[in-house]
Amino acid sequence: MESTHGDLNRETEDAVYFYTPNFYSLDSFSAHTVRIWDKMFATAEHAYQWKKFASSEPDIAQKIFEAQSPNEAKNISIAHRESRLPNWDDEKVSVMEEIVKAKYEQHADVRKVLGRTGTRQIFENSPVDDFWGLGPNGDGGNALGKLWMKIRIRFQSSTP
Question: Which InterPro entries match (predicted)?
Answer without folding.
Answer: NADAR, YbiA-like_sf
